[in-house]
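My main concern about presentation is that the manuscript never shows what a single data entry looks like. The format is easy to grasp once an entry is in front of the reader. For illustration, here is how one protein appears when written out as sequence plus structure tokens:
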Amino acid sequence: MRLKDKVAIITGAGRGIGAATAIRFAEEGAKVVIASLFENEVEETVNKIIKNGGEAIGITVDVTDKQQVDTMVRKTLDAYRKLDIIVNNAGITADGTLVKMTEENFDKVIDVNLKGVYNCGQAAAKVMVEQGKGVILNATSVVGLYGNYGQTNYAATKWGVIGMTKTWAKELGKKGVRVNAVAPGFILTPMTESMPEKVLNMMRDKAPVKRLGLPEDIANAYLYLASDEATYVTGSVLEVSGGIVL
């Protein structure tokens, strides 16, 4: 097992990519902390893992609240005595073109997708530096690399996450902590379900592999970066997009 006895926190793990990643990590032997804003989704993912013979606990958390994030990390340490991996997956969208976007929608996406990653990354890094080892994985997007119509706020956060990833890799590498990011393309998740069907079809047709991604495709990328197979990989952005940006 590639993550045997590792302890991993995964935010936004109640559904979509986060849930798929949690299930995949548990299959590979990790003890997984399911973190999400929604208690019912937390319970659902925990139950799936336990039913499949894995080990998991659930924590309801708002990643924009530093105190709640610190509590999440403390509860993880209380349960498992260490923290090997954190996947900063929690994120939202609130789309609108530049001239139509509201200040409220701009701010809330920045708060979750950027400040939330900062809060979780900082809390995890303090533990990992003390341990002398750890892995921080951040969710960015091809939108952060190339932009996307109607997503000024989302693109800004995902570009910002790349900047934090590379900065943290430089700061924490000598402390034994690796930091990487995954940039998914268009993945079939509850988040993309809100997009018009014609847009999803266009993206499907544009991809050389002629399909949209599945949450499991991204989970496998996180698995590689979290595993000891990637011990010489830090500061990288792994694009998993089916070639949609070629």
About this structure: The domain at 7-239 is CATH 3.40.50.720 (Rossmann fold). The helical segments are 16-27, 39-51, 66-80, 103-131, 142-146, 152-172, 197-206, 215-226. The radius of gyration is 17 Å. The longest helix spans residues 103-131.
